[in-house]
Specification:
- This protein is mainly beta.
- The termini are far apart.
- Helix content is about 10%, strand content about 55%.
- The protein has a single domain, classed as Beta Barrel (Porin), CATH 2.40.160.40.
- Strands 1-2-3-5-6-7-8-9-10-11-12-13 form a twelve-stranded antiparallel β-barrel.
Length: about 270
Amino acid sequence: MKSIIHKMNFRKPALAGFLLLTFLFTANAYSQTGWYISSSAQVSGGQFLSDSYTRVFSIYGSIRYQGDDFGITASIPIVNSNVSQSNGMMIPAGSSNTTGSTTQNNMNFGIGDLYGYFDYNIYSDFKNDIEVYLNAQVKIPTASSMMNYGTGKLDYGGSISIRKSFGSFLGVVDLGYLDIGDPVGITYKNPFTYGIGIGKFFNYGEYSLLFYYSGYTKILDDYNAPHQISIGVNYCVSEYLILSYIGSAGLGNLMPDYTTSIGARFKL
C-alpha cells in the first residue's frame, strides 16, 4: 500500500505547475508590487495501480511576494487521506462492508510537502502583447513518508512560459523539466513537461476563464505518460481579493481521476 501512495505523490508537481500558470493568467491581479496571501481547499481521488481507492483532502496556505518583474511563492498543505480497499474492488470511503467481502479503510492526517515557486519576466513586447517567463519550482519533503503523505525526497524543476494576448483572449505555452526524487523501491524517469492553455477575460478582467492541458513524458516504464486537463475560473472581487475555482481530470493510472479546489487570494 505504501508504494502505491508514493506513486501518487508525483502528481503534486502537475498541480503545482498548473497553479503556477494561473499566476500568468491572472497577472493583472499581481500587477502591484507587495505581499499576497492565499488559501484553498482541495479534494482529489482515484484508483492508482491497484484495487485501492484513495481520496485526499487538503487545505493549502500560501504567501507570495510580487516584485516589478518577478514573483516568489511558498505553499504548504494540511492533508487528510483515506484509502479504501475491498477484495480487488473499489469501495468509496465510508461505505459499509458488503456480505462476503472485507473492507479496509486507512485514514491519515498531517502536514504535506512545502512547495516553492519563482517566476521571472525575462522578456516583454508590449507592442505585440508577448511576455516570456522563466519559472522554477522546488518541493521540500516536509511531509512524513512514514505516514504516506510524501516520498521523503526533494523534487525540483524549471520551465519557460510564453504568454500572448489577443484582445480579451490569452494563450500560454509552457515547456519544462522535472527532477523527481526516488523513494525506496521506486525509480522514476525524470520527465519533460509541457502545457498549453487559453484564457478569456470578461468585463475588463473582472472575470476570467482558463482551459489548460498539461502532460509529462513517461515516468514509469510500465505505464503510459500522465496527462491532465483543467479548467479554472477567477472572480476579481476587488483589487485586494480574487476568488478562484480549479477543476482537473487526470488521464492514466498515475494521475488522480479528479481534482477540485476553491480558494481566495488577498493583497496585504
